[in-house]
Amino acid sequence: MIRIFLTLIFAISISFVANAETETSWNDISKAEKSPENWVTHHGTLDGKRYSRLKQINKKNVKKLRVAFTAALGGDRTPGGAWWKYGGLEGTPVVEDGMMYVTDGWGSVYKFDIRQNGKKLWRMDPDPDHDYAGNITCCGVNNRGAVLYKDKVVSHTIDGRLIITNKETGEIEQDITIADLSIGESISAAPLVIKGGQVITGIAGGEYGIRGYLNSTNIETGKQNWRTYTIPAPGEPGSETWKQGPEAHSKDAWLHGGGSTWVTGTYDEDSNTIFWGSGNPGPDWDNEYRPGDNLYSNSALALDADTGKIKWYFQYTPNDPYDFDGVNELTIVNTKIFGKKTKALLHADRNGFAYALDAESGKFLWGTPFVKKLDWTTGLDKYTGRPMSYDANKDVQKYVPASSSGRGGKEGMSCPGNMGGKNWQPTAYDPDRKRYYIPVIESCAGHVTVAQKEAWKARALYFGGGPKMGPQIRGSVASMDPNTGKIVAKFDMFYPNLAGLLATKGGLIFSASPEGSVFALDSDNLKELWRFETNHGTNAPPITFSVDGKQYVAILAGLGGVWPQWFNSTTPGLENVESGNMLFVFSL
Amino acid sequence: MKYILFFLIILTPINMYGQNKSDYGLKMFKNANCNSCHQWHGNGGGSYGGAAASIRDTGLDKEGLKKIVECGRPGTNMPYFSKKAYKDDRCYGLKLIDFEGEDENRPLPARKMLNDRQIKALINFIMDDLKGKPVSKDYCLKYFGKPTRVCEEL
Prior knowledge:
Helix content of chain B: 40-55%
Number of domains of chain A: 1
Shape of chain B: globular
Strand order of the largest sheet of chain A: 1-30-31-32-33
CATH class of chain B: Mainly Alpha
CATH architecture of chain A: 8 Propeller
Number of domains of chain B: 1
Oligomer: heterodimer
């Protein structure tokens, strides 16, 4: 009898352990830095550092890095909408216990077994409406990745859904509609899962006149916890920054004011605060249509995670005439700023300035250009962080007049151009070296305004103008000292950095260039140490993980998005690079 | 009867799958990326391609359109699609070297060049399906090649 009882106990405990191994606990997510063998949340850790403590691959041996295996995603390269020839690959893979989950542009999730050299175990196809969704994606058919929670894979689709998939079987457990395609909303950002099983969703659609928001969903019930709009309604604080323009219909500009949230934010468990960036106001180029600062567009937002209430904001480019989304991630760091220990947020903006903000109050600490050429403002006010060329007596900003366009045919040329500075491609932060690394687009571009004479129309482009191609666009990787905000090193790239960065304890920065080179730099001086030519156009961030004690580096290769569609003439030669649809995994 | 059946069998595949010149022109419209800026409907407007003109409202005739497609419009985002542009005299008598040091006005090369036959088909498509015509549901269905929710809203 005792033997039977003990056997039963043993069987139950084995089953519990097996089950626990396949579950991603809150501890696995919130303390992800302690399990560098895995990469379970979008930015690696909830604070957005994209830093791994793995050091098997290091400065001394990185030259020996070789392809471990590759895997073709196959699947969803279907054209869609009126523009796109295929979906691109912009996703950050996630890895847990030797299993990798990646997404393609349409939102399919693929599970690969690393121990079996990338054998595909399943593909979840959410079957999106290609034409209807593809027709309202300003910037490509993109999906930036899935994340893990308990026994689930959590992902989005371009047609506005949150999909909960069973990790083991690949079966869809929940299919929840978040965004409304009929008014131009879509989703490209990876989800952020925070304490209590809340899934935070950011939406895209700023170029179609959406009103941006963040949405919180209870992962167990599929019900909405809260939704917070980034553009205030009349009467709410900030609504006074949306004044009427020359057209009568511009009185409703706030309702189509943009402020989208299409880059995954960060989360601070101690203060239970979500930090998220908001995108450009709409219509993008016609700022005369929307006089005022246009809060809370182009802003850092701190939200109470339980209620979605905005605790504070900091706006980078008020009344933006350049399409300078402020949507990029806010990395949470504990470091000295001007010698004082501070919990700060680091942010590299499309407008070419990197910022340090106080994480508790949003107070501006420093702002420094990270691009080689910046001419739309003469600088930032050192106390407030406001652009010095901002005119407090005017509702419509011209900044440095030659840099912006306007109604009546005036064209402008700004550096950086509308693509940035830096775009969605993620930064990395090395807490040991105390260095902030930025993937840079060294650009200038022209601007043309087309007055928004017609009222907003659902699913119609709402640009109020557009960019005009300027000189050749190049790229770089920048290294900054967060204590002072000074650039300490730069690595020049022939093409813009459209991939993003990964920092490791091995003293390495990994990245890729759009013509398909994956490379590693020395974290201390940004000297190149290793390079591999995939010859697949690449615009996705690398990650690292380990399985059975062996460290790997992985990256998706599949150039899509805005660049091959419109910006080839500023990056000559890139038109000859074919876009693949591949996963590359490297090891020693 | 035998002969009628024979002709039906022979002709059916041609009718079903044969492409007329306008279909080939639509294919060029897509392949050459025209839809990126002028949009699928040809009305243009603001986008990341810039502020594109409406092809439906164009006042240009066939020759004028040919010139714009071959040579682009220097000083705007409209690229040139002829490999010979700015190499021989076809484009306003100018050569690429004439634009050196003028980044703002340099002619922009298209991602994909078109040959004379393809340019002719594209111009025919513009004349037959776009110029002077409103956007119709029939055009939408032709563009997408199948019923979609996009066309339902027209």
